[in-house]
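idk why but the lab printer keeps eating my pages so im just putting this in chat instead. protein + LTUXU72L:
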Amino acid sequence: MDEVDLIIHPEWIIPVEPAQTVLEDHSLAIHQGQILAIAPPSEMAQTYTAKAEHHLPGQVVLPGLINAHTHAAMTLLRGFADDLPLMTWLTEHIWPAEQAHVGEAFVHAGSELAILEMLRGGITCFNDMYFFPEATANAAAKAGVRASVGMILIDFPTAYANGPEEYLAKGQALHSQWAGHPLIDTTMAPHAPYTVSEKNLVRAAEIAEALNRRFHIHVHETAAEVERHLTTQGDRPLMRLDALGLINSNLLAVHMTQLSERERDRLAATGAHVIHCPEANMKLASGFCPVADLADRGVHLALGTDGAASNNDLDLLSEMRTAALIAKGVSGNAAALPAWQAIEIATLGGAKALGRDHEIGSLKVGKAADLISLDLTQPESTPLHQVPSQVVYAASRQQIKHVWINGAHVLNERAATTLDQTAILARATEWRDKLQKR
Ligand SMILES: CSC[C@H]1O[C@@H](n2cnc3c(O)ncnc32)[C@H](O)[C@@H]1O
Ligand SMILES: [Zn+2]
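predcted complex ->
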């Protein structure tokens, strides 16, 4: 008999692949960070012994959730400026605060807080776009969490870089520094068509292509963004990206609340990924991404929280529920985005968007052991008719009990094993005090 690192015995498994499957009476064998077998416990016992075993009665195991768009360090700006539309929020509150306070220490402290929150919510991988991305990468690597960090670009100077040349140089240095790391990856992340010139978008795309990286950008977040571009440039931002050859399977188009027929067709035809952030879109009154229609057309979808300053949490479980509910509301079709599909876009959809579906996004033999367990024994999840329905429509992130990433037990009975919660909270409070002295 072979000895493996770990065997987990949950009550149910939602592997995501094959689709729409709930396994009962199955265990997972994990060795050297990978899923080695998924089989009934009796079969497992005949084949493997384990260094450690976890019995999880009443718990469902799923692939780790993938937060496909965030600004992790913005946890320190949670509740800093609420109930405002996007451009007022950004230009009158967030950007001035960032100009005054954002540096390496801010980003490290905010990223650690974000990672703690995300782990406690079952998020095992996040796709970030923020200043000082090396601080976010360091925090993620130390915590043992997967992250894709952005080589950011914005046309104005900040404490991070004095202009496009320096942003791009720092991004490429970041990419080289983390190349080959088992958890940390990079994307090219220009902020938006309204903050990055056409020339710089093209340069960024060339670098992304040369480095084989995704192109992660906010686009069509609001109707005002589209109208302004139409008035000043004569076309819509997405169509301009298309004219520049930037709509392709590397594109991670975040928000997309405004979409013409032609644009929907182009997204489907090119294999671009749309990152849906329904809660931030509602909080800033930005609009609704037509996800049900996009899904029907075969557009690749993933789910993000956006930053905690516009959401105001990093809760992907709740984002799944919101996405499923507003898809029905927007389309007028109660069958739009059913529970199983919400789970799929929050896991495999995110993995595909980040180009990491060969290793994460579903529970398959040979994939990395990034998995979470959710307790369904609580009154709020009782009685249990259908597991996926309970996960999406009734459970809360407080029911997440365990998280493994690459086979490492990073959340045990809701306690983070790689992070010092007391120190993280204390540092966040210190930053609150500094931010309040504005
Ligand atoms: C270049 S670093 C990222 C930059 O994006 C800002 N930001 C956060 N949320 C949003 C959003 O919803 N739309 C546009 N920009 C956003 C963040 O504050 C940083 O300045
Ligand atoms: Zn964003």
